[in-house]
Amino acid sequence: MIQEYKMNNNLPFTPKTKMADVIHLDYRLIPIIGRFGIDFGFSNKTVKEVCDDYKINVCFFLEIINSYHNHEYFPHAELQNFKASLIVDYLSNTHAYYLNVKVPEIEGYIAQIKKEVSIENLKNIELLSNFFSEYKAELVNHLNREDTLVFPYISFLEETLKHRNFTANVVHKIKEESIEHYARHHENMELKLSDLKNLIIRHLPPIVCKEICQKLLTELFRLEADLEDHSRIEDKVLVPKVMLLEQQILEASETE
Amino acid sequence: MKQSELYKTKVCIADKHFIHRLGVKTILSVIGIEPDLYEADTFISTMSCLKDVEGIKFAVVAQDILDPDMNESILKLKAINQDIKLLVVCDDCCKCQTNALFILEEDTRQQVLEKFQSFFYDDNEENTESNSDLLSEREVDVLKAVALGYSNKEIAEKLFISINTVISHRKNITEKLGIKTIAGLTVYAVMNDLIKPENVKG
């Protein structure tokens, strides 16, 4: 299926695009490319050549960066054709990026502001800091649940289908812990983030350390945009795909 | 529930019956208003009250002191005091809807309270129109309760308004402040010294 996969040639990024040009055209893709484990120093290599070097599925890579680049473009059907493990790997890398890079970065800015802020504003920064800590706790909780429960479940389904190992246990598991159950509880993690942005933009009294505050705000916007894209892949690609896997297994187990 | 700005509000209560005027006073205190009161029991004394009391802005008027042509009486009251807001207690709604707010026979207890509330509090919103970011007094009350962790039902009971009114206040608060979560509203309320953090319900 993947070999036959046809890329839409009207998209800005194709297998023949130079990898350096991808970043020149949209620098917001820097962390996305990093998430695939790709390092800089592309020389004149095309996207296809770089992906081959890193043993990355070039079609998957292109769909991800094209959809991130242009929000109007969201090829759910195409993305659903990729193996679930490929999508899961990408999403786990994204989780790691949030927890190991983004969140500490934001915490660093908040800590810096706390040090430099005037006494009158300290109370407000403490409030924002606590608010972000609460948000972080929720985010960590949410991502951990996916990493330890949801993603392994998906790999398990794919393995089951591959080996056609349809035990009663498997069927029971699908019926009891279907992905639909998870999807229903997939609460929106972006609400609090958007509140934090507005608390700073609209309600925080003028602050002395303006530059750090601007950086903080910019990072919050980036994290938010990234999370939106992330949930979009989870909700529109991964969940329907896993539902299909579940259905295939249930049907196959009945006929065998 | 503090309505400090409204404490000094001057309200004329015009009704022939002492017992009706007492009823109006009770409702005012239920919705948290403690104004300077001026009572009138005839159309003439109502006219002179609106003319002579400086800064009077509200009048709760019963139909029985008005002429049979209610419309004309209302216009007369308006003519004598252009700033006056009229709340008319009547059995039938007359034609000049824009000149007054009406309490009708068929209104339930809840509807009467809500009409009184919008009569007194909407005026406040008009005053703050120049700065649309600011919340009205009523919205501040709702915000405080939300930030402290009360449910919509509890807030409705506490403030004597319907749950729908609470929901619509919450919607306006969220729109004006750009904050959607309860935790975010709590931060806003503490930031602006509306509530004390130690009072937030666990």
How does the SSE layout of this entry go?
The complex is a heterodimer of chains A (256) and B (202).
Chain A: H1 19-25, H2 30-35, H3 47-53, H4 58-69, H5 76-80, H6 84-116, H7 119-163, H8 168-176, H9 179-184, H10 190-203, H11 210-255
Helix pairs in contact in A: 6-7, 6-11, 7-10, 7-11, 10-11
Chain B: E1 10-14, H1 18-30, E2 36-40, H2 43-52, E3 58-62, H3 70-80, E4 85-89, E5 100-103, H4 109-127, H5 137-148, H6 152-159, H7 163-177, H8 182-191
Parallel strand pairs in B: 1-2, 1-3, 3-4, 4-5
Could you walk me through the main structural features you see in this protein, from its secondary elements to its overall organization?
The complex is a heterodimer of chains A (256) and B (202). Chain A is mainly alpha-helical. Chain A has two domains: 19-77, no CATH class; 83-255, no CATH class. In chain A, 74% of the residues lie in helices and 0% in strands. Chain A has eleven helices and no strands. In chain A, helix 6 runs antiparallel to helix 7. The radius of gyration of chain A is 21 Å and the shape is globular. The two termini of chain A are 25 Å apart. The mean pLDDT of chain A is 88. Chain B has helices spanning 18-30, 43-52, 70-80, 109-127, 137-148, 152-159, 163-177, 182-191, and strands spanning 10-14, 36-40, 58-62, 85-89, 100-103. Chain B folds into two domains: 4-126, Rossmann fold; 132-199, Arc Repressor Mutant, subunit A, CATH 1.10.10.10. Chain B starts with 9 loop residues before the first strand and ends in an 11-residue tail after the last helix. In chain B, 49% of the residues lie in helices and 12% in strands. Chain B has a five-stranded parallel β-sheet with strand order 2-1-3-4-5, with helices on both faces. Chain B has 202 residues and is an alpha/beta fold. Chain B has eight helices and five strands; from the N terminus they run E-H-E-H-E-H-E-E-H-H-H-H-H. Classes of the chains: A mainly alpha (256), B alpha/beta (202). The A-B interface holds A 123-124, 127-128, 131, 134, 191-192, 194-196, 198-199, 201-204 and B 133, 177-181, 183-184, 187-188, 190-192.
